[in-house]
Design brief:
Strand content of chain B: 5-15%
Distance between the termini of chain B: 35 Å
CATH topology of the domain at 65-191 and 219-250 in chain B: Pyruvate Kinase, Chain: A, domain 1
Largest sheet of chain B: 5 strands, mixed
Strand content of chain A: 35-45%
CATH superfamily of the largest domain in chain A: F0F1 ATP synthase delta/epsilon subunit, N-terminal
Radius of gyration of chain B: 29 Å
Oligomer: heterodimer
Structural class of chain B: alpha/beta
CATH topology of the largest domain in chain A: ATP Synthase, domain 1
CATH architecture of the largest domain in chain A: Sandwich
Structural class of chain A: alpha+beta
Order of helices and strands of chain B: HEHEHEHEEHEH
Helix content of chain A: 25-40%
């Protein structure tokens, strides 16, 4: 059991709840955090964050974009730039964003930072859609 | 002397104006509440972020160009944050005046002092006085959001690195209460961790030395500092928007009251005139009747 909070600049998603299990999209891939994890600090990329609260059988999911995760004996803190829970995701918009990003990425005249930007958009749209489906 | 019809129409138009100012006040009050909420929501994120940055920089002795150095800045970018719309009392004028004073006083102190405006009002103020800015962002969306702040921050960051500045100052209205704003000049870059550092060295317990870092602290702090900057920009914008709505609310409240006073005065004159004209008419009738009798 460990304490967990997820905050974004615009709102607090969850604060100080007891968790049994947490999966975060670390920049190197999925990272599972269980009680007793050693202190860790990592950056997170766009992806799905899953957590199972104490006494619950199901995982709750949220889509986050850039953030970082801090594991300390006191608990786990996740600061994400954006976070959306399952209910907040608009399927149509995500689909549109995905198409748009795909189309843009095929453009050969794109500059490096633009590619990066659309790549992130693509990732985010994909993550959103995979949560819904 | 104005005739009855003129006064009647003035009363009508003042009443209409009063309706508008009252509505604007209500709108600002509602927006103010939301803006205040934004500030409150941001606080946990912002404080945590700064703490982590200072923790890392202290425990790992990380040096980064964006972290504060002891030397005085030479090239400074001054960001003046105003609103795009008026009718909010002294809100924009105060900031602009402060910025102008700051600009005049400190121009000699630095090798270079450039201006960056967010919001049309500040830019216009300086343009009128013949001072051109380096870069401007205007016509921001009505609602401040983190995504918007991120765009602004990107632009600032871009200017910062392109222009070879070593400091960014932000001048804006800080929200104190619905009726009070305070103008502050804050150093956004380099990030100052000295205050937080002092606290941390005494109570290191929350942050252990053997923490695993992925990626390395040096890389991480780079990302964190950039995000911290964005957060700071977002915070300033939130503060400024809240202050703007507060200022607009107060000035619209005053305008509504003034319109009320004016209507009262006009109604009084109107009634006096009306009575005077009735009296004159009566006199005319009676004197006419008297004349016929005779």
């Amino acid at each position: 059991m460990f304490r967990f909070s997820l905050v974004t600049p615009e709102k607090k998603i969850v604060t100080d709840i007891e968790l049994e299990d947490l999966v975060v999209p670390s920049f190197r891939g999925e990272l599972n955090i269980l009680p007793g994890h050693s202190p860790l600090m990592t950056t997170l990329s766009t992806g799905i964050l899953k957590y199972k609260a104490k006494g619950e059988n199901k995982y709750s999911e949220a889509v986050i974009s850039w953030g970082y995760c801090e594991v300390s004996p006191a608990g786990v803190n996740v600061l994400a730039e954006t976070a959306e829970s399952l209910e907040e995701i608009d399927k149509e918009r995500a689909q549109e964003a995905l198409e748009e990003a795909k189309k843009r990425l095929t453009d050969p005249s794109l500059e490096a930072d633009q590619i990066h930007k659309f790549q992130r958009k693509l990732d985010r749209a994909r993550a959103r859609l995979s949560v819904i489906n | 002397m104005a005739n009855l019809k003129d006064i009647r129409s003035r009363i009508d138009s003042t009443t209409n104006t009063q309706k508008i100012t009252r509505a604007m006040k209500m709108v600002s009050a509602a927006k103010l509440r939301r803006a205040q909420q934004n500030i409150v929501n941001l606080r946990p994120y912002a404080t945590r972020m700064l703490q982590v940055i200072s923790d890392i920089s202290v425990t790992h002795r990380v040096h980064h160009p964006l972290l504060s150095t002891s030397s005085e800045p030479k090239k400074v970018l001054m960001v003046v944050l105003t609103s795009d719309r008026g009718l909010c009392g002294g809100f924009n004028a105060n900031v602009s005046k402060y910025a102008l004073n700051f600009f005049n006083e400190n121009q000699g102190k630095y090798d270079q002092l450039d201006l960056f405006f967010i919001g049309t009002k500040g830019r216009d103020y300086f343009k009128f006085r013949g001072i051109e800015s380096d870069d401007v962002i205007t016509n921001l969306a009505k609602e401040v959001s983190y995504t918007l702040a991120a765009k602004v921050a990107d632009r600032l960051m871009h200017d910062f690195s392109e222009g070879g500045y070593d400091s960014i100052y932000m001048i804006y209205n800080e929200f104190k209460s619905a009726i009070a704003q305070e103008i502050v000049c804050e150093t956004l870059l380099p990030v100052d961790v000295s205050n937080a550092t002092l606290d941390k060295e005494t109570e290191k317990a929350s942050f252990s030395q053997d923490m695993i870092f992925e990626p390395e602290p040096e890389e991480m702090i780079d990302e964190l500092l950039k995000k911290h900057f964005t957060t700071q920009v977002y915070r300033c914008m939130c503060e400024s928007v809240a202050a703007e709505h507060g200022a607009r609310m107060t000035s619209m409240e005053n305008a509504t009251n003034n319109a009320g006073d004016m209507i009262k005065k006009l109604t009084l004159t109107y009634n006096k005139l009306r009575q005077a004209s009735i009296t004159t008419e009566l006199i005319e009738i009676t004197s006419g009747a008297e004349a016929l009798k005779g």
